[in-house]
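Let's practice the habit of predicting before peeking. Look at the sequence and jot down your guess about where helices and strands might fall. Then scroll down.
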Amino acid sequence: MTEDSETRAGFVALIGEPNAGKSTLLNRMVGAKVSIVTHKVQTTRTRIRGIAMEGDAQIVFVDTPGIFRPRRRLDRSMVAAAWGGVSDADIIVLLIEAQRGLTDGVQTILGQLKEIAGERPVALAINKIDRVKAEHLLALSAQVNEAYPFAQTFMISAEKGYGCDDLKAWLGAELPAGPWLYPEDQIADLPMRMIAAEITREKLTLRLHEELPYQLTVETESWEDRKDGSAKIDQIIYVARDGHKGIVLGHKGEAIRAVGKAAREELSEFLDRPVHLFLTVKVREKWLDEKERFTEMGLDFNDG
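Done guessing? Here is the structure:
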């Protein structure tokens, strides 16, 4: 930053249907992994803020849970958190998946945006462009822009990076003038305890199948910084049923060991120091209805 330059700062909400690529885009923009990324839908549960620098602009990205039709209390709280992220933002970016196009879910989101976006700029980012033909992209862009007056449209691949620099440059230029909101070297405003829990939950989600990933949560119970520079982290995996505990543990503890190893390795790389990770699995049949669990996930229990 030069002495006579004008700094900019503000919040950018990433919204869209589940699995549209919001978390992948957030990690791409920040340049580090701050949000859980899996092939399964509805994996982001909280509003995760990742911080990126673009010239003299500081962009605070809010990666919201995917917007979908809620069924349970947890679902309703996640959708409320998503729209809460939109209401706090200076700029909104709607991600849609090129292959899925203008779905009923996207149309529902557009209807909501017309009510709440006001004068704030809304950009369209058509993601996963490497998976469809160019003529399909042009037709889709025209179709979606006809449904909503977007300030700008970007064709991107969050996974491969195509078009992401252009989107980032536009966002940096559009943000309001003002002082930076965070230190220049900070990449997220989530507590490290929550990031650690999210990393372990991601490994569980990748390891397990069907509905179980949505029936469990991970909490960091304790964190000890040791004199030798390492960190000792104790986490609890809460599941809703006895049968789920056996699935998480696996045959002779094989599954939990594999999850622990993968989470420990990623945490060590993220923290740039050795990590001793200890996982415990506990059954709490009503955890999906416990206010304390929602608070730990950064969600509002009353929104459910």
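How did you do? The radius of gyration is 20 Å.
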